Amino acid sequence: MAITYTDEQMRQLLTQYGPTVYRLAMAQLHSSFDAEDVYQEVFLKYLRAKPVFQNREHQKAWFIRVTINCCKDHLKKACRRDLPLEQQMLPAASPNEEYAALHMALTQLKEPQRAIIHLHYYEGYKTKEIAELLEINHSTVRSHLRRASKKLKKLLEGEEF
Amino acid sequence: MFEEQYRKAFDQALPSEELQQETLALLQEAQDHHIQPEQPVRKWKLAYTVSLAGTAAAILICVVSASFWMDRGQKYDEIEGEWTTNDSLFSENEAFCSDDPAENTVEDSAASLHQDENKTASGSDEDSDQAEDSELKSDNEENKSDNNAPVIVNNGETKTYLSLADFVEELEAMSAPGFGTNYLYSKELLIIPSLTYEEARFRCLYLDIASGNYSYSYLITSEGVQYYLEIRTELTLPKTADALSKILENISANITFRKEENGYRYSFEEQGEVTVRVYPTDGTAIPDEETADQILKTHFSLHRYDPDNPCLNMTY
Fold this sequence. Notes:
The complex is a heterodimer.
Chain A: H1 7-29, H2 32-49, H3 56-80, H4 97-106, H5 111-121, H6 127-134, H7 138-156
Chain B: H1 2-11, H2 17-32, H3 43-80, H4 103-122, H5 127-139, H6 141-148, E1 151-154, E2 159-162, H7 164-174, E3 200-208, E4 214-222, E5 225-233, H8 241-253, E6 255-260, E7 263-268, E8 274-280, H9 289-299, H10 310-313
Parallel strand pairs in B: 1-3
Antiparallel strand pairs in B: 1-2, 3-4, 4-5, 5-8, 6-7, 7-8
Helix pairs in contact in B: 4-5, 4-6
């Protein structure tokens, strides 16, 4: 028998994982417009796949992985357009200049680096856990993190602006 | 230090209440329509299927394109004895919908289009109507190019460049049995650019066959500053004429507005079927709210699809 979710269950899912999905999409895409697309896409995928999890961490990891994949697809789609509808990579909504600078600096990073930075600094994952999530080598994660942090620091200090 | 700054920046980034409600409604709707769970597919099997389908699609596209262009070439040969292809719209190294406004290119394109239109008109039997149209068109050369601007249709394998009129024909064809109901009524939801704005230049239209979404982009000038006016649609396509009427009523009735970091966003209809964004080309000259409203009112209007609309009847 097919699993169905009640309105309350769907609402709980959105409350519990919505912010994680949205923030990660923002960190990847830097456009609230595109982040919203990804947000909806991820939850629709969840509804279609109806995955079963061992625990909450497992469930959260699923959302993170699917969000990253959706963002990759989104970026690929943008690349397939000869030139995107203007500025596929827009600075995200930020309350002040300091944060705008941070978002702008993040756009200078490569795609896996943005995800790694976000998962490490915001979601608090260790490099080993990130390696498992992204299915890449642990040493690669560490080297991406080191380079990305260094680059961000330089950018925020204004050395490369 | 950096960690704290990063956390603070992203603490602010939360999905809006509106987005959550919209998503909830979407999920409910998807569940009500009994969407099928995705079946696990082995990677090799998927790759094999995709490559086979890709090869078949490529062959089909080559055959169809060849017959289309041969047929079209023949048609124009009969009229004028020569045929200028759409390629004349682009200079040799110009990317489609380039960030560079490319004034000269557009003017050249307009001239080329004008020439072609005259050729077509002179070869037609519908003299009086065409002559009137032609007169109207000559009043505003730039707008002619706007509305003849190409459309990119992406079917995942190839991109096809079409005029707006041909694009509507494509949509009509896709509404036919065999394509499911995905595109039924979609042409009625088309937003037709107005002919009255001298400084609005239609830049490109992008249609993704897989998702059914399409987007328009305009380059506009207001008080000497250039802005992009971008229109995106999410076609939750109606299955009945009544449902269509309801959507059209809502589009004109409900407009939500919000300011974003880099511009403004207007959503027509509660579920965001049509979204318009206004933002500056250089990323810095963000208009104030009054100016953004003025830009929207001056440069944008919603028109229902109408087969008699001269915008759609122009040909290359």
